[in-house]
Structure formats: C-alpha cells, structure tokens
Amino acid sequence: MASVSAWPERLSGKQKRAIEELVAGQEYANQLQILFCNPSSFQETGRLSSPKIEELIHKILRSFDQTLAVLSSVESAEVSQSQTASNEDSSIGGRRRPASKEKRGCYKRKRTAQAWTVVSATMEDGHAWRKYGQKEILNSEHPRSYFRCTRKYDQGCLATKQVQRMEVGSQMYRTTYIGTHTCTNHSFKAPPLIITDSECWGTATVNISDSSIPIKQHHDGQSDLSPTSVAVKQETKEETPTTPSDLTDLDSVMWKDLMGDGLEYCSEPAGMVPNVYASCTEMRSGNFEELEFGIKPMEFENDFEIEFDDSE
DNA sequence: ATAATTTGACCACT
DNA sequence: AGTGGTCAAATTAT
C-alpha cells in the first residue's frame, strides 16, 4: 500500500507530517485494540485502569490534534499562495493587509474546540501568548483580553485564551483556554493545571483531603510555577443558561470554599496563589481529548461513564 | 528593525 | 440590535 515515502512529491512537508501523524495514531489505536482484547488490561473492578491505555488514548487524541493543526496551516498557506498567484496580496503568512477594508473580517468564529476555565492569581501559564484584542464586557468591571498562541503562524497552533480579571477577588483572573496547543514549543514551563486527585472528577467538588498535596510535576516540568489545582468542573456551554455575573458568583463561592478549606499548602511567593478552580467546557460532546493540563480523561468514568460506542 | 500591544472597526452570533 | 470575538493599522516596547 501507499507508504508515506511513496506519496507524490508535490506533497508539502506539512502534508506528509499530517499523514505521518495519522499513521502514528492508527498504530496507537491498533495497540489499544490489542489491549482491549487482553483480559489482563482489566483490574478486578472490571474497569479499564491500565495507565498504558490512558497513555495510548492520549497519544491517539494528540495525533488527531496534530493532524488537524497541520492541515489547517496547510490550507492557509495554500490559500495565500493561490491568492498571490492570481492578483491579490496575501494576508496570511505575509505582513498585513494593506488598507483593503472591504474584505476585512472574512473569518470564521468559534471552532468546535474545547474550552476550560481556570481561575488563577496569575495570567502566566508557561505558554507564549500574543494579545490580539481586548473588549469591554457587559456587567463586568474589567475588560476581557484575548490571546492567541505565538506559534499560530509558525506551526499552526490554534490555541487561544481569554483572560478577565474577576470582580471580587481583584487579584484573581479567570482564564478560558480554547483549543489545544499543538505547537512544539519546548521552552514552555510547567502547565497551569495538574489534576492530582482523580476522586474529584465528576463530582465537581473540591477534594483536598491531603493538605500536603505534592506539587506534581510534569515529566520534565520546572517547578517555578508550582501549579496546584483542586477542582475541575465539566460543563457544556450550550447548556449553561447562567449569565456572566452568575458564573462569577459561582466562582467566587467556589473560591471562598476553597480558601476556607485549606489552600495553605500553597507555597507561592507573596501574592501568588495557585489555580484554584477550573471548569472544563466542551463545545462538542463525546470528546475528552484535552490533556494539556495533565487532565486524565479516563478518570471521568467515575461519574460520567465514558461509553466507547461514540454516538454521533 | 522587529516584536508586541493597543484600539477601533468589522463581523458572527443570538 | 446588542454583545462579544477577531482583524489589522497604529503605536509602543525591546
């Protein structure tokens, strides 16, 4: 069959990379299938709990991410190329669109990406972001800032985030991450959110039974950010009838609960508080692929019952 | 000189 | 029509 090297040479490097990603993902899926057929993958509980399976799922989903990112950037490049060939200037990849305001804003909004909301005392999360907008938000004291990954045009990384200072805590920022980082930016520091206790999944409640929660580090993560998260909530954006102010109230309540319940393990510098609350939003159901913050999708099964027959 | 931010306009959604 | 997300020229920072 068609191996990667046998593809027509007109394929760009990015297209080849997309194919390679898909092939890798297929390989991981095959391995996963083998594991599923192997009874030793199941514990006495009958649940899948092998870390290997989690790892494979992670890899598979990441493969999709990478492929999508690569393909998206290829598309952009092709468009700009064809436009250059025809007559117009290229706006993507080149500098700026010179005063052709008529065609301005031919962009799509809101891809079907996942979003997470993190409440933190800092806007820093270890990734390199580029601010591209700011907006006054109705009924909000502070404006909302919009950031995209600095690798957007480099590597087609589609990750964005929105940061807004919270009304009450004044020191706290609500950060909504949209989309996964697909860039290979190895200079980034520790991610902002690490789930250390699987028991808190699904219940959306805080569970800091162990006040000496070790600052879990990523495989090769640094310690200067020392992120500690205590709660993650999953929700569906479409089914959230609450107004922005309601959300804020909810968060401040959560924040109060958390503060009152023992965040003293925080060893941050003065004024620095770790992330205390994160909510996970899916714009499309049935996909627990986000692993950027160390989230372990498999552990949703405690309450969410991941079904492996993907309806839809 | 280049990169990042600011800011008003444009546009998608509801 | 109102609100919020994105674009891109102008401005500021490095």
UniProtKB/TrEMBL annotation:
Ranges for the WRKY domain? 118-181
* Alphabetic keyword roster: DNA-binding, Nucleus, Transcription, Transcription regulation
Q: Which InterPro entries match?
A: WRKY_dom, WRKY_dom_sf, WRKY_plant
> Which Gene3D superfamilies does this one have?
WRKY domain
SMART domains according to UniProt = WRKY
Q: What is its main location?
A: nucleus
* Short name of one Pfam family: WRKY
* Stretches for region Disordered: 79-108
Instruction: Identify the SUPFAM superfamilies for this entry.
Output: WRKY DNA-binding domain (SSF118290)
Its localization reads:
Nucleus
- Name of protein: WRKY domain-containing protein
Native source organism of the sequence: Hibiscus sabdariffa
